Amino acid sequence: MGAAEVEAVVVGAGIAGLAAALELQGAGCEVFVIDPADRPGGVMRTDHVNGYVVERGPNTTQVKPPMRAFLEERRLQEYLRAAQPASRLRFVYRDEALERVPMSPLALARTPLLSAKAKLRLLAEPFIGRRRGGEESVAEFVGRRLGPEVVTGMVGPFLTGVYAGDEDRLGARAVFPGLVDLEDRYGSITLGGFVGALSRRGPKGLRGSWGGQAGFGPFARRLADQLAEPPALGSRVMAVGRDGAQLRVEVTSANGDLDLSARRVVVAAPAPEAAQVIRALDGDASRALEEIVYAPIASIPLGVDPADVRQPIEGFGFLVPRDAKLSLLGCLFMSELFPGRAPEGRQLLHCMLGGVRWPEAADVSEDLLVERAIADVDRVLGLRGAPEKLGVARWVRAIPQPGRNHRARVDFAQARLADPSPAVALAGAYVAGVSVADALASGIAAARRTLTL
Ligand SMILES: Cc1cc2nc3c(=O)[nH]c(=O)nc-3n(C[C@H](O)[C@H](O)[C@H](O)COP(=O)(O)OP(=O)(O)OC[C@H]3O[C@@H](n4cnc5c(N)ncnc54)[C@H](O)[C@@H]3O)c2cc1C
User: Fold this and answer.
1) Residue 383 C-alpha to ligand 1 middle, in angstroms?
2) 295 lines ligand 1 (CB under 6 A)
3) Domain 114-195 belongs to what architecture?
4) Ligand 1 atom 49: residue of nearest CA
5) Cα-based torsion angle of the residue sequence 26, 27, 29, 31 in order, rounded to the nearest 10 degrees
6) Do residues 406 and 136 touch, judged by C-beta distance below 8 A?
């Protein structure tokens, strides 16, 4: 049977796939987006429960320069909403108390998160020699340059918040590419950062943290609405192969199977699914993606009456270092960040459990997850009454964990797929950063690769 001819196919309608599709459409291509889910957005999902607006996936994002330019060009920035300025107030749970994360040099000098010795050690950073040998973990890189207390007291909790991962396994070059580049270029991240700040030019992102105006689910839907051809939901790409000068995309759905013949394909599915899709195209690239591991996350929103919470609910929320031995990775104060996300007189707390610290969170009962979330929030914030349970979202493969040599692995797979043309490019959270902004930027970059290859 002949395949239907299309110009471009995007595999996956998460933020990476939607960005790729809009970028291809902007370049004049007719694009087909395919996703097995029943709505666009991938892990971006927003529900309304008992008057609360609950995010099941991401809660906030930075808006980096590519995301800002992308949204402004399409007049989509109005679907985002800035978090309240108080979101700069962030906490780490340490020694049974919430300590403010230092956000300025003066605050760093005063923070109890580091000992006096550790603060003095920071001053030695410009005199530390360059790395020798292979790639380092984040713990090795930051520990060598800034001292071990910065790893456990500050960077560890940060990695928990962003990756649900840990400093010993995550690779420095994948997680902090800018800092590793500064060491490569200037021999010091402090001096390099100083030089960079003096000479910084070029496009800027938006300041602060951002959420969807009505949540990230509706934000994704707005992006999908911009496509001339709506995403084919309930359909899955089984394989991409070569067919002479074209790419052949095998699609299956409840209505039957369909083959598409395309000139360009962006694969914006998570790494394990992407590995399957490209297996027939290139076994080595597929095996490289299979090695990428993910951490699970359970998102557990709780509604509370602030009068029933002993600690004030203010700022962004708090993160929990692994030595605190809680199940909770962190808790965001969502209705403080975005007023209106909780009914009048209530607050919305968003708890995250799981990660590499507690991978069994992917399998245990929902009741146990909620029980643990409430027990840990009680320990940190002090609860007088029972909080309102607003459901559980469990993502078995939530966040990719880029280890040492991750970038080389992804570059290798991209290069294999680009040769020979026609063009296939990879996009998604495992490609160049796990945040919403980075996944979106990876979609734009992948679309451009297929246009230029
Ligand atoms: C619980 C949670 C909380 C998070 N919190 C934050 C946060 O606060 N801030 C932040 O910046 N980031 C956060 N992240 C990370 C960020 O949301 C994600 O990294 C990003 O949204 C991933 O986008 P994506 O398009 O790469 O992948 P996804 O959203 O996973 O989309 C991939 C799509 O591919 C589809 N697909 C899979 N296989 C196929 C196939 N064979 N054919 C067709 N389609 C297929 C899937 O159905 C899915 O829709 C969070 C993630 C999770 C899970």
Assistant:
1) 33
2) no
3) Orthogonal Bundle (1.10)
4) 42
5) -40
6) no
- Closest residue CA from atom 17 of ligand 1: 58
- Residue whose CA is at the smallest distance from ligand 1 atom 50: 58
Matching CATH number, 43-100+205-216+294-400, of 3.90.1150.10, 3.30.750.24, 1.10.10.10, 3.90.660.20: 3.90.660.20
For the chain, the structural domain boundaries read 4-40+231-292+402-452, 43-100+205-216+294-400, 114-195
Q: Which residues contact 299 (CB under 8 A, 6 or more apart)?
A: 55, 56, 57, 350, 351, 352, 392, 393, 394, 395
Q: Tokens for 194, please give them.
A: 């100083």
* pLDDT higher than threshold 70 for residue 2: no
139-168 pLDDT per residue, tens: 999 999 999 999 998 999 999 989 999 999
Between strands 328-333 and 347-354, the pairing is: antiparallel
Q: Which fold has domain 4-40+231-292+402-452?
A: FAD/NAD(P)-binding domain (3.50.50)
Residue 1: the pLDDT is 52
- The C-alpha torsion from 172 through 211 and 347 to 303, rounded to 10°, is -80
